[in-house]
């Protein structure tokens, strides 16, 4: 298995995954539609990190465009598809649910159909811990996830179900990876870690929904990317959690950012959002057993690495909008 189609290659997890794949000798065809959900300059910077590698080629393609994808599949022999392309963000999905369905559910179906048609042997889908809303923690993969509380989560549920259908009907070997609050260098500017770093370093108030006691299973991006590559292993059909297995309060994460930036924050509190989850906590027993995967970075180590990256890139980061 050497030739990989990686969707969402200009994304936060996509860039890190591409680097891991290339480092292990894979050839990677990366695609991304470079949409403006957040500042496109950040996506451009990520692609610059990959440019120049002879085993990486990039195309600006939207996974919603079946014909463009078909042309790509017909011109390449892909051994595996890793679908990291998605409309992310819980809050924006409430404002525009349609684009979440067309990208996350329909776009994933496009990739499944073409994988079937062109004989792809492995399909990996990035999914989300948001599906576990209302379930008992720690979240284990066998829990029923039939109560999504955002269009984002619902669209990912649809993608997961289509994956099972293609496995059942056509034997497509498929692994679904449910990610838990990924953070780190080149992170998404709509997520709390990036926003907190930016506000603190620019001496602006930090906006917190609720009282900061909500907890997340923060997972460092390098751990996630390593896990995605391990997910290429043939397994039949599996759903696997990737989390840090050690949840921390939002307030704890903020304290670590203050520690490694050397700056105190001014906090502004607002009402907790109904579409948010109060806590996430991954049971990663299955990841350890099937993929020999477990996180290597604690939250403190990950925030320290992110702070180092922020200092080294603060000149251009100052221009990034959140």
Overview of this structure, please?
With 322 residues, the chain is an alpha/beta fold. The chain is built from 12 helices and 13 strands. The strands form 4 sheets. The protein has a 7-stranded parallel beta sheet, with helices on both faces. The protein has a two-stranded parallel sheet with strand order 7-10. Helix 1 crosses helix 8, helix 5 packs parallel to helix 6 and helix 7 packs parallel to helix 9. The model has no long low-confidence stretch (mean pLDDT 96).
Task: List the SSEs and their pairings.
Layout: E1 3-7, H1 12-23, E2 27-32, H2 40-50, E3 56-60, H3 66-75, E4 80-83, H4 90-95, H5 97-117, E5 122-128, H6 151-170, E6 174-179, E7 182-183, H7 192-201, E8 206-209, E9 215-216, E10 219-220, H8 221-230, E11 237-242, E12 248-249, H9 250-261, E13 267-270, H10 285-291, H11 299-312, H12 314-317
Parallel strand pairs: 1-2, 1-4, 2-3, 4-5, 5-6, 6-11, 7-10, 8-13
Antiparallel strand pairs: 9-12
Helix pairs in contact: 1-2, 1-8, 3-5, 5-6, 7-9, 9-11
Provide a quick synopsis of the model:
By secondary structure, the chain is α/β, with parallel strands linked by helices. The protein contains twelve helices and 13 strands. Helix 1 crosses helix 8 (221-230).
Overall radius of gyration: 19 Å
Strand content: 15-25%
Fraction of residues in helices? 40-55%
Poorly predicted sequence stretches spanning 5 or more consecutive residues:
none
Rough shape? globular
C-alpha termini separation: 38 Å
Contiguous helical run count: 12
Mean pLDDT reading: 96
- Give a quick account of the main beta sheet: strands, pairing sense, barrel closure: 7 strands, parallel
Number of strands: 13
